């Protein structure tokens, strides 16, 4: 069985799909298994190809990207979705993340940024540009549907949350805090449970919004 990251490209522009294929074709650990020119075909392609990561444009015919993300996440929650779009408007960014996208990248990003984002999302880590994170924080300023549990975060969980907000992987957090990777994973699970959050992306945004971390901490 191949250890390569299996990618599916969903974009209504053939030139964009061709360019991404050419770029990813130079990466030894990545292979493109299929592509779609509209949201409906993206949904079908997810079922047929069972990719590790889908690169999803938001503006597509038949079914738009956000609806496609929602449907794919319902049917294949193990698939990671990285939004790759030209749109950074609030009304597109937040719904895409809420629908289940683990990363959000703009098309004017460099090739290295795309490859890095694919690898991050494949590992289950969020991949958000600070510009996108700021927009999401503004959107999330409204009260949450569920308040955090009365069980507060421990000091160690706060340490882990701060590093999650910086985009570090579990192993990188483990190395920095001198912990086992499994221990960090357990802390992340506990953080999500206590805060009633669904993903590391939401945890990172929560940390930024509540002052546990800052975009200027880099």
Please explain how this structure is put together.
This protein has two domains: 5-139, Rossmann fold (3-Layer(aba) Sandwich), CATH 3.40.50.2300; 155-217, Winged helix-like DNA-binding domain superfamily/Winged helix DNA-binding domain (Arc Repressor Mutant, subunit A), CATH 1.10.10. The mean pLDDT is 85. α4 (90-99) links the parallel β4 and β5. By secondary structure, the chain is α/β, with parallel strands linked by helices. It starts with a strand and ends in a 9-residue tail after the last helix. α6 packs across α10. A six-stranded parallel β-sheet has the order 2-1-3-4-5-6, sandwiched between helices. It has helices spanning 14-24, 39-49, 65-75, 90-99, 111-122, 130-139, 155-165, 170-177, 181-195, 200-209, and strands at residues 5-10, 30-36, 53-56, 80-85, 103-106, 127-128. It has ten helices and six strands. The chain is globular and about 50 Å long.
């Amino acid at each position: 069985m191949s250890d390569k990251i299996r990618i599916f490209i969903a974009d209504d522009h053939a030139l964009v799909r061709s360019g991404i294929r050419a770029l990813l074709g130079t990466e030894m650990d990545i292979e493109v298994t299929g592509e779609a020119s509209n949201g409906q075909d993206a949904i079908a392609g997810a079922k047929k190809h069972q990719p590790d990561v889908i690169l999803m444009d938001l503006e597509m015919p038949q079914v738009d990207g956000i609806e496609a993300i929602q449907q794919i996440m319902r049917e294949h929650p193990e698939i990671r979705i990285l939004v790759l779009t030209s749109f950074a408007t609030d009304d597109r960014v937040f719904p895409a993340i809420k629908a289940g996208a683990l990363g959000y990248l703009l098309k004017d990003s460099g090739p290295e940024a795309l490859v890095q984002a694919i690898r991050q999302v494949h590992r289950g880590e969020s991949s958000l540009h600070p510009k996108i994170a700021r927009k999401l924080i503004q959107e999330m300023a409204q009260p949450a549907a569920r308040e955090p549990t009365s069980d507060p975060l421990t000091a160690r969980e706060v340490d882990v949350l701060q590093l999650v907000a910086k985009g570090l992987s579990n192993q990188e957090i483990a190395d920095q805090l001198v912990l086992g990777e499994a221990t960090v994973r357990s802390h992340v699970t506990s953080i999500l449970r206590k805060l009633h959050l669904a993903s590391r992306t939401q945890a990172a945004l929560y940390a930024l919004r509540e002052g546990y971390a800052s975009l200027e901490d880099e």
